[in-house]
Specification:
Helices cover about 80% and strands about 0% of the residues. Helix 10 runs antiparallel to helix 12. The chain has about 375 residues and is mostly helical.
């Protein structure tokens, strides 16, 4: 059995790396497979449906059962999904596989942050933000890797599946130190959450954060190629720059975020993301301006989700797994609602009109972040 905190921490980071690949795999490959923006939106919605169910159940289970066991199950499901995605021409079957992929991602996501809080009792927000930095790294690496393979997604998916399988084997032997689990009943947990309604507002902020991040990840390549006339390679480079911006932003905020200032950083981040994404999507900029703006947009979105999750875990420390799981349900809610809305408007009205959703999402996110501070 592996009891090393360093090995366990590295395994959490590695798991989030592969979650990052799962987050961006649709945006990086679906347009090349031949799917429309609307179909891409529904694929993301299916993925987030599976994620939402798994992250809620996994978060609650993490307060009752060993977290490495839950992580192992999630990684096995994720490996199976990567091994079977796009192997069939059936769009309906690929929708079901995306549900499976989401379930694997949710099972793993449910426990990584909570386990880091168990193992590290100082600078908890820093570890959570850095953990999500690896999501951005995974997203950027798969985009770059596909570029180097000339968008040969078939071989890349199989290689990712095999590597995740190996990581699942390691996770099965992890036995790191965990905080003692209190004997709680579901009614006790619900009573705690009812007494502090800030969990609802943090949930709203989390949904908006993921709407800006995943929503952009899913449509950037299509946006650049269809509305701005970029080549497939140029569109893929744009996606890579956005994801790289998220990675850079998360490592910067993870290392430099002052203790107790997480809420203020999230509020400012929503404002900055709304302004940058509105400029990117709603103004016809020259090519030389688009690429750096994509990088800055990714940096502005970067800290929003992990710091919101960290706020929930620290506020409800004795039920951190459940509280963080509740906020993580906002990931599929935002991931289903906003990409599906964008896809619906793109199919029924126009792709360009659908892009006006992004400034609206940012405004709602600011409200959800600021209000708890005033309560």
């Amino acid at each position: 059995m592996i009891k090393s905190v360093r090995v366990a921490t590295g395994s959490m980071f590695a798991s989030m790396f592969f979650l990052g690949i799962g987050v961006s795999i649709v945006g990086a490959t679906a347009f090349r497979v031949g799917y429309s923006p609307g179909q891409i939106g529904y694929l993301l919605g299916a993925q987030n449906l599976g994620f939402g169910i798994a992250v809620l159940l996994g978060g609650a289970a993490s307060d009752l059962y060993p977290k490495p066991r839950i992580l192992t199950i999630g990684l096995v499901l994720l490996a199976l999904a990567f091994a079977t995605l796009y192997r069939s021409d059936s769009y309906a079957l690929n929708l079901l596989i995306m549900v499976l992929m989401g379930a694997g991602m949710g099972g793993a996501e449910a426990v990584t942050d909570a386990l880091l809080l168990d193992m590290h009792t100082k600078n908890e927000s820093r570890y959570v933000v850095i953990n999500h930095f690896f999501v951005s790294i995974g997203s950027a690496v798969i985009a770059l890797y596909l570029m180097l393979l000339d968008l040969d997604w078939s071989g890349a998916l199989f290689q990712v599946a095999a590597t995740i399988g190996a990581l699942a084997l390691i996770a099965g032997f992890l036995r790191p130190p965990e905080q003692p689990r209190a004997v709680l009943k579901p009614a006790d947990i619900l009573a705690t959450l009812r007494q502090d309604s800030s969990i609802v507002l943090l949930f709203v902020s989390g949904a908006c954060a993921i709407g800006l991040g995943i929503g952009s990840t899913g449509i950037i390549a299509s946006y650049l190629s269809e509305l701005r006339g970029f080549t497939p390679g140029g569109a893929q480079l744009g996606l890579l720059l956005f994801l790289s911006g998220m990675a850079i932003g998360r490592i910067i905020f993870g290392l430099l975020v002052p203790h107790g200032r997480a809420r203020g950083i999230v509020s400012v981040g929503f404002v900055a993301a709304g302004l940058l994404l509105s400029t990117l999507y709603l103004i016809a900029l020259p090519v030389w301006a688009v690429y750096p703006l994509l990088l800055l947009s990714g940096m502005s979105v970067a800290p929003l989700l992990p710091l919101t999750i960290a706020l929930a875990g620290l506020r409800f420390r004795h039920i951190a797994g459940t509280a963080m799981g509740v906020i993580k349900v906002a990931i599929p809610v935002g991931g289903i609602l906003f990409p599906s809305l964008i896809g619906l408007v793109a199919d029924t009205v126009s792709f360009s009109v659908a892009l006006y959703a992004f400034p609206v999402i940012a405004i709602i996110g600011v409200v959800g972040t600021v209000m708890p501070e005033r309560r």
